[in-house]
Amino acid sequence: MRSIKFPKNPYVLFFPFLILYIIYVSVFSRDVNYGDQGMYLKWAEYLLTVDFKEPLNDNGSIPNGPGYPIILIPFVLFKLPLICITLLNALLYYFSIILIFKSLQLLVQQRIAVLTSLFWAFYINSFISMRAISPEVFTSFLVALLTYSVVKTFTSIEVEKVKKYLIISGITLGFIILTKVIFGYVVYFLLFGSVILWLINKKSANLSRVLMILLISIGLTIPYLTYTYYHTGKIFYWATSGGVNLYWMSTPYEGEYGSYISFESLKQKSTFEQNGIYVYNDSNISNHLKVWEEIENYNRIQQDDKLKSIAINNIKKHPVKFLQNWISNVGRILLNNPYSYNLQKPRSLFFTPLNGIIIVLLLFSLVPTYKYWHKINFGIRFLILFSLVYLGGSTLGSAESRMFAITAPVLLLWIAFILQNTIKINLKFNTVLPNTHENH
C-alpha cells in the first residue's frame, strides 16, 4: 500500500479549506448589523476620531479592548459591506491552519503535523464565529501566530532569529490582550511567577526570553490602560464587563447555572424569548430586575463596581451554589452546556465530539507532561501554562465554549507533541489468522 504524499507547500495543502470557508461565510453570514457587532463597529468609528478625551460611550462603558476594532478600521473607513469582514475571518482561519502546521513541523513528524492541522481545519466549533463580526476567529489566529513565534523563539539557534521571533511573540501577545482583556490577567500572573523563578535562577536564558515576551506585551497595552485610567481613575482597569459576568456566575437561585443573561433582555420578555431563552422562574427574574433597577441610573463603571460587590456577597453567602455554578461553567466551556433557561438544542451536539476528543487526549497528556516536564521544550511549557491559566481564569466568570476554541491551537500542539514522544502505533493487520483448533 502506497503512503499518501501531501503537497510540501502548506499554502497549497490547505488551500481547499480557504475555498470552503469563503463559500460557508458567503452563504451563512448576514450582511446586517446585529448582536455585539455594533459594539465592535462603534469602537472602530471611535478610533478613527483620534479624540480619546471623550469616552467611547456616554454611559462610560468600556465593553472590550480595542484590538479587534483596530482591525475593523479599514472596513469602517471605506464603508465596505459587512460581509467583507466575515470573509476576512475565512482568510484568518486559513492562515491559522498554516501557522499551526508550521509550528508542528518544528516538533513532530510530518504525518502528525498534517493530521493535527486537519483537525483544526475541521474544527466546526469555530465555524459559528467565522460567519459573524466577532473577535473569536481573529483571536484564534493571534494564538496560532503566538504559538508559531514562541516555538521559533525556543528552537532557533541563530541569535538574530531568536530576537526576531521574541519581539513578534511579545507584540502578538500584547495584541491578544487588547483583543481579549482577560489575557491581561493571565500575563500578569505569568509575569509574577516568571520573576520569582528568574530571581532564583538568573542565569536561565529561557526565563529571560519569557520575561522579555511578557514585558513587550505589557508595554503594548500601556496606551490602552492610560485611556482607561483617564476615564475611570482606576489603575489596570481593563473593561466594564467584569462585574456583570461575575454577577451571573454567582447567582444563588436554583435553576440558574451561572450563564450570562443581559439585563436589557430580562426587561423585555419578548426579546428574552426571541433569543431562544425561556422564562421558567419569574421570581428569579424579578430578583434580578430589582438589582438592575437599583443600579440602572449609575454609569457603567459604577454599575461594574456594584455588581462585583453583589457577586462577592453572593459567593460568601452561597459558596456551595457558587461551586455548582463553577462546575456548570466548566461544562459550558468544554461542552457548551448547561445554560440557564435554555431548552436543549441539537446544535449543542456539534460541540461534543471534537471537544470530547481534545479533552480525552489532554487528560492522557497530563501524566507524561507532569513526569517529563523538564524535558519538554521551554516554549511548549510556556504555551501550556499560558493556555491553562487562561482556561482556569475563564471558569471564574460566566463562560462559553468559544473561550475554549480560542486556545485550541495551543492544546492541539501540546497533544501532538506528547503523542509523538510517548506513543508508537503500528496499524498492521494480519490477514492470516492462526489456527486455534487442534486437529484430533
Structure description:
GO terms for molecular function: glycosyltransferase activity. It is found in: Cell membrane. By secondary structure, the protein is mainly α. The protein has 2 domains: 10-238 and 345-422, no CATH class; 243-335, no CATH class. The protein is 67% helix and 0% strand. The chain has 21 helices and no strands. It has helices spanning 10-13, 15-28, 37-49, 67-77, 83-105, 110-121, 127-130, 136-155, 159-179, 182-200, 205-232, 242-249, 263-267, 269-274, 282-295, 300-317, 319-335, 351-371, 378-394, 402-406, 408-422. Helix 10 packs antiparallel against helix 11. It is globular and about 65 Å long. The two termini are 39 Å apart.
Overview features:
440 residues; mainly alpha; 67% helix
Topology (elements, then pairings):
Elements: H1 10-13, H2 15-28, H3 37-49, H4 67-77, H5 83-105, H6 110-121, H7 127-130, H8 136-155, H9 159-179, H10 182-200, H11 205-232, H12 242-249, H13 263-267, H14 269-274, H15 282-295, H16 300-317, H17 319-335, H18 351-371, H19 378-394, H20 402-406, H21 408-422
- Which sequence of SSEs, written as H and E, runs from N to C? HHHHHHHHHHHHHHHHHHHHH
- Strand-pairing-aware structural class: mainly alpha
Summed up, the helix count is 21
End-to-end gap: 39 Å
Structural domains: how many? 2
The unreliable regions are none
Overall body shape: globular
The share of residues in helices is: 55-70%
Residue share in β-strands: under 5%
What's the number of extended β-strand segments?
0
Sheet having the most strands: none
Query: On the 0-100 scale, what is the average pLDDT?
Result: 89
Report the radius of gyration as a whole number of Å: 24 Å
Main location: membrane
Protein name: Glycosyltransferase family 39 protein
EC number: 2.4.-.-
InterPro entries: LipidA_mod_glycosyltrf_83
